Amino acid sequence: EENVTKNKFILVGAKITENDSRGGVGTLSNALVDYADKAGFEVVVIDTAKKPFSKTFFLQDIKNGMLRVYQLVTLLRLEKYSGIIIFSSAGWGFYEKIILSAICRIVRVPCVLFIIDGWFLSVRNKSFLKRLWIGLLLKFPHTLAASGLNWLRLFRELGVKESHLATIHYWLPKSFSVALQPKVLTASESIKFIFVGWMIKEKGLHEILAAVNSLFDKYQFIFTFIGDGPMLEDVRQIIKNSKWDSRVFARGWLTLEQKEEALSASHVFVLPSYAEGFPMSLIEAMLSGLPSICTDVGGVSDSLYDGVNGFLIPPKNIRALKEAMEFYILNPDSLRTH
User: Any idea which of 60-64, 129-133, 242-246 has the lowest mean pLDDT?
Assistant: First the structure.
């Protein structure tokens, strides 16, 4: 019994197939299970995955949430666990995960709560009563994981004690390869920009398309979109109508291996999101040796330093995005130093 207690954990997160690269929570969950297995720990997963962009009724969300509550209670009644790791979104998902955290506290099993949704950071703009309420709820988890200084500041503002906070940066599956050399642009190459993420406006797609439109006739470059979502076909139609299809591509979702190959073949990563917790795609890009152009949101600025390994730009700022892309087009040697 002692060995089981020390080596067995519960993970509340998205369970996805090995080759499915869709969504940061799934990537985090799979990577955590990978590392746990390698270290000799057993992880039981309570699955939170759902079909991307599928419309569900509120009552269905409640039903799914209560099912996960039941699964957690059942697991805790049957066996002892060393701890519980919970990944949380914003909105209703946050309240569900707080209920799970409260159960952990009642049965005295330590839990770590990761809030991975960047939109949660907007709570600092809410009313005093809303912030007070959220601060009280955040007392239920034994430990709150912060993916950067911006998250730490928010939790402190909400009254979370320092002893309940832990700075934990994100991770990737062990299969992901690491680039050993900086990016180099040969004389015969066009610089290649790449976006990886959901094809939704909140990822800054309108800003990317506007920047591409401004630069396309002026410079030789290639831009590749990787990702699925509501805007995929719209982007493909814009590419076709604008006659960009010789140099701009929207490839949809790729397997993990195909995505790694695409990143490895590119020079600069672009992600002008309106909100992020900490984007997994940025970690992938950095490990692929790419300098990055990202908006200064969530925990991004903890890993991306403006003018050092890329550029931090304001959200919804087409001019800043265009100028950052133009910098790399005109200064390809900076790929070595960035």
Answer: 60-64
